[in-house]
Amino acid sequence: DIVMTQSPDSLAVSLGERATINCKSSQSVSHISDNKNYLAWYQQKPGQPPKLLIYWASARESGVPDRFSGSGSGTDFTLTISSLQAEDVAVYYCQQYYSAPLYTFGQGTKLEIK
Amino acid sequence: VQLVESGGGLVQPGRSLRLSCTTSEFTFGDYGMSWFRQPPGKGLEWIAFIRSKAYGGTTEYAASVKGRFTISRDDSRSVAFLQMNSLRTEDTAMYYCSRARWQTILLVDHWGQGTLVTVSS
């Protein structure tokens, strides 16, 4: 199985400041066939299901604010929130779909307001 | 896109439960469907997947549930099911159904609200 590891486990950021979450996979999630990174980011607010934010490591899902961005390739990825808003308080998960349907997730990063 | 899970509840260890995922606002038969679960206060785990009929309707399972859980689908009713047998206390979790956006690239794009399964004596 591909193991996904996120850092940090929790993060406190002031409103309007940048938040950065990292994700590392135990093997590359980039397909040779299409040179795409099979990496997604989800946001989960308390009492709600996960919501897709980013796919292909950097493609923003429709309706997701542009303060959310994804970057990285191969085994190292980053989710950045450029200017934290109160509604961004949530747990964020990275997920690989390279070996789908054997999906695996990072352990989650809890984002709070400082 | 709407996905609504039902069928969760309190069940004793060793018993069975069947979850349903009723869908609408998309052509259910064209999509692969998964079940995920999330124990209270913990992370997300994929447990089962079923392909569309066009791709054979085949199924795959996580090792943690293989041989105990069965995923199925009824395209005429736009419903996916998860039959859970020989339940264990460690199966206690919120169970989510989800849709894979494309037939061959299985990005999960929509999730239901979940149904809670509690396994306890």
What does this structure look like?
The complex is a heterodimer of chains A (114) and B (121). Chain A has strands at 4-7, 10-13, 19-25, 39-44, 51-55, 59-60, 68-73, 76-81, 90-96, 104-105, 109-113. Chain A is mostly beta strands. In chain A, the strands form two sheets. In chain A, strands 2, 4, 5, 6, 9, 10 and 11 form a seven-stranded mixed β-sheet that branches. Chain A has a four-stranded antiparallel β-sheet with strand order 1-3-8-7, with no helix packed on it. In chain A, a hairpin with a 6-residue loop joins strand 4 and strand 5. Chain B is an all-beta fold. Chain B is built from no helices and eleven strands. In chain B, the strands form two sheets. In chain B, strands 2, 4, 5, 6, 9, 10 and 11 form a seven-stranded mixed β-sheet that branches. A four-stranded antiparallel β-sheet of chain B has the order 1-3-8-7, with no helix packed on it. The model of chain B has no long low-confidence stretch (mean pLDDT 97). The A-B interface holds A 38, 40, 42, 48-52, 55, 61, 93, 95, 97, 100-108 and B 32, 34, 36, 43-46, 49, 60, 62, 96, 100, 105-114.
